[in-house]
Design brief:
Two copies of one chain form a homodimer. The first copy, chain A, is α/β, with parallel strands linked by helices. The model of chain A has no long low-confidence stretch (mean pLDDT 87). The longest helix of chain A is centred in the middle third of the chain and has 20 residues. Chain A has a five-stranded parallel sheet with strand order 2-1-3-4-5, sandwiched between helices. In chain A, 57% of the residues lie in helices and 15% in strands. Chain A folds into two domains: 125 residues, Rossmann fold; 85 residues, Arc Repressor Mutant, subunit A, CATH 1.10.10. The first copy, chain A, is built from ten helices and eight strands. Chain A binds a DNA duplex through helix 9.
DNA sequence: TCTTTTTGTGAAATAGACTTCACAGAAACC
DNA sequence: GGTTTCTGTGAAGTCTATTTCACAAAAAGA
């Protein structure tokens, strides 16, 4: 399991180091910065998943910093911390791109809860946009390819021309095209005698397609 | 629940009527023909899901009949019945397009088992090629659309521009395009104040996607 | 060996999905 | 009222997926 990298930006050294300590004590990998300007540079070197930034700082404040980061890295989560907390302040922070808002002084657990919650949200979002998901889903979105999976699931193993005839497709190169696609996605494989069959991944996907068809209807 | 239509082709009136009786007694809708030629005509009027055809008949036999049918209607399942059963005979029948093979005399239950088995196979195949499935899967195969679903799943309800900003997409018309697609597939809907939210179908699909992402990784 | 069937490749044509751009009405804001 | 932001449409262009076609090596049959 890889640890999540978190960036902490605060000009107050005591507070900054306190936060770093809490986070590192909980197995997060931390990058600390004393200003938003420094942070902008460091982000380019290693992109964190989450940023904790103070609102009031000399130079660029958190409020100005957030839109800049969100523009370049829309998926980074930002938690803003602030000393003088008001409703207006909180609303303004959210509008500027903060994903969460923490008023000083906060407890150790308040910080950790906020951090974990935001990392969970991030994980949730990312799960649905994984590249593997992309490949698999677009492969499954073609009806001919799904028919091929269905046939192979029923028959276990089939020769190229048998699949073609079974589906009633006259142009065999068309079937070839789709089989190639299925092979590329690792849904189907070919053994030594050239027969096609489902991979274990392919078997799972057929299961899931049936699940889906039940959900749809 | 709609009943499956089965076509029975046999020149022997007694046997034909016996089969019809068994099938109708089990709530199938039956079309009986005394020759393959008649059957070819009747198929055009109502397409059965399954055909039970005798091999030996005056005029066109089952062996010649099957390729003709399979060519026009590759999805119809065909059970061949035959009096003089040999291995070679069975193999030849399967090669000509039979999906199953029954030797005379057969028991009532043997017939019903074969019929049900073949209808199950048909159902299995068809589940994976439903048009709804097509629409849903191709909609889900786009990463931006999946991100929109994720965001709506987290936030519950969102305005158009909030979604656009959340995803960090500069061209709002692009988001509009994908939202339209999601609406067309009934995954997302819009309430009176123009906010977008997941439909119940959309909620199911987000569930499904998470299941899928676990299986993939 | 000669022929046919199977299995396959790659290029060109077509269709479909996605993006971009120019514009516009509606609503919110000043 | 005038201005800005939100929400949306439609056309044109671009990129990707799919189909079709021409061809060919390998395997199976005759």
């Amino acid at each position: 399991m890889t640890t999540d990298t978190i960036m902490v930006i605060d000009d107050d050294q005591d507070l900054r180091e306190g936060i770093v300590e809490i986070l590192e004590g909980n197995n997060f990998s931390v990058i600390a910065c004393e200003s938003a300007e420094k942070a902008m540079q460091k982000i380019r070197i290693e992109v964190p998943r989450l940023i904790i930034v103070d609102n009031m700082m000399p130079g660029m404040g958190g409020m100005a910093f957030m839109p800049l980061v969100k523009n370049d890295y829309p998926r980074i989560k930002i938690i803003m911390i602030t000393a003088f907390s008001t409703v207006d302040n909180a609303v303004a922070a959210m509008k500027s791109g903060a994903d969460d808002y923490l008023a000083k002084p906060f407890k150790r657990d308040e910080l950790l809860v906020a951090v974990r919650r935001n990392l969970e949200v991030l994980k949730f979002e990312q799960q649905l946009s994984e590249p593997d998901m992309d490949e698999t889903l677009s492969s499954l979105s073609n009806p001919i390819r799904r028919q091929i999976l269905a046939v192979l699931s029923l028959e276990g193993e089939m020769r190229f021309m048998d699949i073609t005839r079974y589906l009633g497709i006259s142009d065999h190169t068309k079937v070839n095209f789709h089989l190639k696609n299925l092979k590329a996605c690792n849904l189907v494989s070919q053994d030594r005698d050239k027969s096609y069959c489902l991979t274990s991944h392919g078997v799972k996907m057929v299961d899931y397609l049936h699940l889906l068809s039940q959900k749809i209807s």
